[in-house]
Amino acid sequence: MSQIRDSLIVLAWGAVLCTGAACGGERADAAGREAAATGAASEFDGAAALEAVRAQVAFGARVPGTEAHARAADWLEAELRRRADTVIVQRWTHTTADGRSLPMRNILARFRPTEARRVLYLAHWDSRPVADSDPDPAKRRAPVLGANDGGSGVAILLGVAEALARRAPEVGVDLLLVDGEDYGDFETNTDVLIGSRYFAERLPEPGYAPLFGVLWDMVGDEAPVFEQEAHSVRGAPEVVQRVWSTAQRLGHGAVFTNRSGLAITDDHVPLLAKGLRVIDVIDLDYPWHHTVADTPDRVSQQTLQLVGDVAVALIRELTATPR
Ligand SMILES: [Zn+2]
User: Fold this and answer.
1) Distance, CA of 244 to CA of 253 (rounded, Å)
2) How far, in Å, from the CA of 188 to the mean position of ligand 1?
3) Which of 157, 236, 306, 319 is the 20 to 30 Å CA partner of 74?
4) 50 near 304, Cβ under 8 Å?
């Protein structure tokens, strides 16, 4: 209750103090705080995001080379075409270390594609071919349905796309779904991060340099805690600072904790290596990670709402010209 009261006071101050156009950012902040505290008037639809998780899992495991993978990609592409100004699809064939050919697809949905000031959000849309962390050895060769591992991040991007379709951003926004993150072996770094590596070598234009980027991965746990992932802190500390302070302003300091986290091999790493300022928001502490039980009933609508609110607020804070 006190959180709601506080945020309403902040909103009232915003209304009193901000009569000029320059105060738009502060007004947006206050509106974001109110939305986060009350659940009302949020631009991000958490219920729709959970539906988007279910819709992805309904295709089956999105394992490269399967029919479910191809059909899910078609669906994602269509969903983004309905919302974005333009959609670019990268299609290629990846040859695995053991010689198999995998059809791959990255999908890039762009808002205000000519704008130089841009934000990049990404998520992996594939799911893992083997549930190699399942407690039951008999299930370890079954594929992962990836409701949280894959599905949740995609749902955040689709929800952000919906919010931006309703009200265009002042800056450019790129929403990138990458393929093949989870296909192979992380121990040996083989056949993993396939789509983000491909994208890093083929950026949408010369000199492509978003103001900042965020990878949203495993963002649907019912008890989320996002520690500050170590590659992110080392490679783009100002982006960690930006994302965490926005989340904390929205009242989510317990979820976006200032604790240092592990270094996680994820899709932000190839982009950081290319000089892009991209961090990873991830909660690896998910009991069903890489098991057959990573299903939509283990994904929380409240968590999707919280993360989606942060993702939208980070865009709304930005104005067409730097303040
Ligand atoms: Zn995974």
Assistant:
1) 8
2) 15
3) 306
4) yes
The yes-or-no verdict on residue 237 having pLDDT over 60 is: yes
Q: What pLDDT, on a 0 to 100 scale, did the predictor assign at position 3?
A: 33
What's the gap in Å between 289 CA and the centre of ligand 1? 7
For residue 100, which amino acid is it?
A: R
Q: 25 C-alpha to center of ligand 1: Å?
A: 36
Which candidate, 178, 53, 179, 157, places its Cα nearest to that of 111? 157
Calculate what percentage of the chain has a pLDDT beyond 90.
86
Domain 44-316, CATH: 3.40.630.10
User: How confident is the model at residue 320, as a pLDDT?
Assistant: 82
Contact 144, 128 (CB under 8 A): yes
| Residue found under tokens 């730097």 | 322
Cα of 60 vs its chain's centroid, Å: 21
Give distance in angstroms: CA of 128 to centre of ligand 1: 6
Least confident of 19-23, 237-241, 314-318: 19-23
Mean pLDDT of the residues in the chain: 90
- pLDDT tier at 5, thresholds 50, 70, 90: very low
Going through the chain in order, the beta strands assigned E by DSSP cover: 86-95, 101-111, 118-124, 172-178, 212-217, 226-228, 256-260, 278-282
Q: What is the pTM of this model?
A: 0.88
Query: Where do the structural domains in the chain lie, given as residue ranges?
Result: 1-41, 44-316
What's the alpha-carbon Rg for the chain, to the nearest Å?
19
Q: How far does residue 64's CA lie from ligand 1's centre (Å)?
A: 14
Q: Strand 86-95 vs strand 101-111: parallel, antiparallel, or unpaired?
A: antiparallel
Kindly give the distance from the C-alpha atom of residue 151 to the centroid of ligand 1, in angstroms, as a whole number: 10
